[in-house]
Amino acid sequence: MREFLGFLFDNALEIEWQQVVMWFIGGILIFLAVKKNMEPSLLLPMGFGAILVNLPLSSAITQVLSNGQEQEGILNLLFDAGIANELFPLVLFIGIGAMIDFGPLLSNPKLMLFGAAAQFGIFFTLGMASLLGFPLKDAASISIIGAADGPTSIFVANMLKSDYFSAIMVAAYSYMALVPIIQPPVIKLITTKKERMIRMPYEQKDVSKLTKIMFPIIITIITGIFAPTSVVLIGFLMFGNLIRECGVLDSLSETAQKVLANLITIFLGITVASQMTADKFLRPQTLLILAIGLFAFVFDTVGGVCFAKILNLFLKKKVNPMIGAAGISAFPMSARVVHKMGLQEDPQNFLLMHSIGVNVSGQIASVIAGGMILNIVTPLVG
User: Which residues, other chains included, contact 336 with Cβ-Cβ below 8 Å and sequence gap of 6+?
Assistant: First the structure.
């Protein structure tokens, strides 16, 4: 009994203040998930995992025992099996693809331009992070945060072997969850009330089943030719969409949208937490990454809105500039934010279908942008 109490006391003495800080950070993530309903399927396991891996001598992560032997932790095993080889993010893309209806985009293909314009912040932030002293591989990984695309952020950061993987992950998914808080003030700052009140009547156009089936196939082929590094990302996304649209795999489509996506998200969250140990996370660079990520996210929003404003200079039939903000990858949160803001300005201004079209185009554009970043940076970092 005395030996047991002695062990407990010795273990308690192993607690460091940095670990306590990480418990607090984990608690904040759990609070945001439970109380604020912000990406609960991801932030809850990330928060709990952050506490789990920062317990003294936690068996959840790899530890070196007193005899010098290494005891591998289950979360490190999951990381090697699911994230180090990009398996979890890619399988998650199948689920995301099965959730997306490209109908609004196919009925108005020019909305793709807004999705492309909203990736401006990624490339701007790449240069900014480099100027702030981050190595190119880390600057490129940080820049993807601006797309509010968690799976692509994981994929790019892991492919480039970024030293700030956990901070990038927390920032990417946190800003996805904070879309309803961050985007409205940014949109209002760069638009006038008159612009926000521009009505965009939605004209329902029939999109044939053949078109919906061919779209993911054609996008995959084009991406594979012009951006081969991103073909695995866009390919898995489009494969999920093909399952949805083919019409003969309804049960698989439903499984991919719900069971598969939710299960992978849970494993993804708690596995990412294996990299949230105090020694890796509590660094000055982490706060800088969070700040740069916010900057990238804001500039992606600004890029989409400003593109719409410039386009209006040449259009007779004006578009509501707010729909440009939906060009980030946070689907469907950003589209809902834009629609809600339109209703606040004018109860008869229904922007949902337009913003959904822009939002799904942003999903495609962010994946392609991630592939372009890899194409550019990978040869330079060896």
Answer: 180, 352, 355
Exposure letters 137-164 (e unless 16+ CB within 10 A, then b): bbbbbbbbbbbbbbbbbbbbbbbbebbb
Query: Is 15 domain-assigned?
Result: no
Q: What is the DSSP string of 190-229?
A: HS-HHHHT-----------HHHHHHHHHHHHHHHHHH-GG
Q: pLDDT by residue for the chain (382 residues), tens digit each?
A: 555 555 555 666 678 888 899 999 999 989 988 988 877 887 888 889 999 999 887 888 877 766 667 778 888 898 888 887 888 888 988 998 999 888 888 888 888 888 888 888 888 888 888 888 889 999 988 888 877 777 888 888 888 888 888 788 778 877 777 788 888 999 999 998 998 888 888 777 788 999 999 999 999 998 888 878 778 888 999 999 999 999 899 999 999 999 999 899 888 888 888 888 888 888 888 888 888 888 888 888 898 899 999 998 888 888 999 998 888 877 777 888 888 898 888 888 888 888 888 888 888 888 888 888 888 888 887 6
The CA distance from 191 to 40, in Å, is 32
- Please answer whether residues 32 and 177 qualify as being in contact, where contact means their C-beta atoms are separated by less than 8 angstroms: yes
C-alpha radius of gyration, the chain, whole number: 22
What pTM did the predictor assign?
A: 0.83
Q: What are phi and psi of 202, to 5 degrees?
A: -100, 120
Whether 50 is in a domain gets the answer: no
Query: Which two three-digit tokens encode residue 380?
Result: 């330079």
Residue ranges making up the domain that contains 297: 76-381
CA distance 295 to 125: 8
Identify whether 294 is part of a domain: yes
Q: Is residue 7 part of a domain?
A: no
Number of domains into which the chain is organized: 1
User: Cβ(146)–Cβ(168) under 8 Å?
Assistant: no
Q: Round to whole Å and give the CA distance between 99 and 93.
A: 10
CA 339 and chain centroid, separation:
21
Give the C-alpha separation, 31 to 34, whole Å.
5
CA distance 277 to 274: 7
